[in-house]
């Protein structure tokens, strides 16, 4: 059974606290959208690029030095910043 996609809103501090987990797990894909991105409440109404992702994150504010923060995710091969 496929998992239901879920979103999680993150502040800059939340993002910093989250990064060690995908780093430890060797995460290769991350979906991160900006604070102005809007989607429907039902996952089946989300844009197609989000529907097959088990989890994705939305920033609550612009994040300074985002590239440096994400640079520790050395196994990351795909970073989707949305299309908002």
Oligomer: single chain
State the share of residues found in helices, binned by percent: 25-40%
**Number of DSSP helical runs:** 4
Q: How much of the polypeptide forms β-strand, as a percent range?
A: 15-25%
Walk me through what this model shows:
The chain is α/β, with parallel strands linked by helices. It has one domain. The chain is 26% helix and 21% strand. The chain has four helices and four strands; from the N terminus they run βααβαβαβ. The protein has helices at residues 12-18, 20-25, 48-51, 66-70, and strands at 6-10, 29-33, 55-59, 78-80. Strands 1-3-2-4 form a four-stranded parallel β-sheet. The longest helix is centred in the N-terminal third of the chain and has 7 residues, at 12-18. It is globular.
Give a brief description.
With 84 residues, the chain is of the alpha/beta class. It contains 4 helices and 4 strands, in the order βααβαβαβ. It has one domain (6-80).
Summarize the topology.
Blueprint lengths: L5 E5 L1 H7 L1 H6 L3 E5 L14 H4 L3 E5 L6 H5 L7 E3 L4
Parallel strand pairs: 1-3, 2-3, 2-4
Keywords:
single chain, 84 residues, alpha/beta, 4-stranded parallel sheet, 4 helices, 26% helix, globular
